[in-house]
Amino acid sequence: MTLEPAGNGTPGVVPSAPLRRRMIARDIDEPHRAATPLELLFDLCFVVAVAQASGRMHHALSEGRVGPGWLSYAMVFFAIWWAWMNFTWFGSAYDTDDVPYRLTAFVQIAGALIFAAGIPRAFDQHDFTVATVGYAVMRSGLVANWIRVARSYPAGRRTAVRFAVGVALCELGWLGLLTLPQHTRIWGWLVLVPAELAVPVWAEHVRRTSWHPAHIAERFGLFTIIVLGESVLAAAVTVQSAVDAGEGIGSLYVVAGGGLLTVFAMWWLYFAKPAHRFLTSNRVGFTWGYGHYLVFASAAAVGAGLAVAADHATHHSALPATPAAAALTVPVAIFLVTVWALQIRPHHAGLAHSVLTPAAAVLVLAATFTGHPVLGTGLILTTWSRSASP
């Protein structure tokens, strides 16, 4: 910390990054390890891409393009989640907060914004060129950081080299897909996605990186909150547009009320049990971290589902009632089951706690076939969420 004049001319304490530090592993037992302002900025910028993916899926579903909409969403969200998670796990082990580290974080943020700009073309034209370039930029910043670890930290060199080589090869593979005919690129995805997922397992086989369990749990929790907030915003914008047009006011009140109950209960369930207590090994960490693809993707999809429900209530959706309802109930059910498996079940709660959340997911799916699926979903989640509390 350095003492510098504040913006109003009075002295104030402001953070100042050192020019350069040795990038060595941080203490896994470091007390009071919290998310940094840079990490929070990183999350907020990545949510731009999340919002684009959720928004484009909303439009695809409302236009009746259900299969292509879900496929494009799954593919786009993988890249968002994977780049975010790799930065988060790396930062938990090696965040030096010096100038080079901040600059590589800014490179990854820039890549996320380029990626976000390419999402509409990926959904509407199945053209992933801009998105792939953005992804490559994101990954370049991560490769630079792993090379820096390899040069600065002999104890972690083999792991760092494996990460740098693995990520770089996957990056070249994604860029290589752009040279293939568009209709054949899906096969490249089926090869490169497993390859991406295998890199951390292969790299950390020789030595575990010193990620901090409490820091990781906080980072994932904060991103969950931000994604849930984006879902509320997406639904609010849709409802506002319908209200301004003076259409379906009564039905929109039901959608808005049920949507708020749903998001509140999703937050309640996710934070019902602390996660850091059981993040004690790479085996648990990989399962928990990889499982969050479904947590984040389903949470963001809830926003699209609420927007589709509002479109249906105002007769602006090409979907029949049941598929429109499923746009909300399916991601909510996925969220419930995944959070139960990752956050609640590992605490070895009693039998009642173990079965209530999956049962709630079944009831949410059943709400698809009711006259008010959004309100029904909200009421089911509100009733069941208290059961998972400490």
3D architecture notes:
- It is a single chain.
- The chain has 390 residues and is mainly alpha-helical.
- It has 2 domains: 37-203, no CATH class; 213-388.
- 73% of the residues lie in helices and 2% in strands.
- The protein has 12 helices and 2 strands, in the order E-E-H-H-H-H-H-H-H-H-H-H-H-H.
- It has helices spanning 37-62, 66-94, 99-125, 129-152, 157-177, 185-203, 213-245, 249-270, 282-313, 321-344, 351-366, 373-385, and strands spanning 2-5, 11-14.
- The protein has a two-stranded antiparallel ribbon with strand order 1-2.
- Helix 1 (37-62) crosses helix 9 (282-313) and helix 9 (282-313) runs antiparallel to helix 10 (321-344).
- The radius of gyration is 22 Å and the shape is globular.
- The two termini are 39 Å apart.
- Mean pLDDT is 87; it is low at 1-14.
**Percent range for β-strand residues:** under 5%
Quantity of strands, as a count: 2
Low-confidence parts lasting 5 or more residues at pLDDT below 50?
A: 1-14
Give the termini distance in whole angstroms.
39 Å
Biggest sheet strand order reads 1-2
In quaternary terms, these chains amount to: single chain
Apparent shape:
globular
Number of helices: 12
- If you average the pLDDT, what whole number results? 87
* Computed Rg: 22 Å
- Roughly what percent helix? over 70%
SSE class:
mainly alpha
Biggest beta sheet summary: 2 strands, antiparallel
Number of domains: 2
Order of helices and strands: EEHHHHHHHHHHHH
Features:
12 helices, 2 strands, globular, disordered N terminus, mainly alpha, two-stranded antiparallel sheet, 390 residues
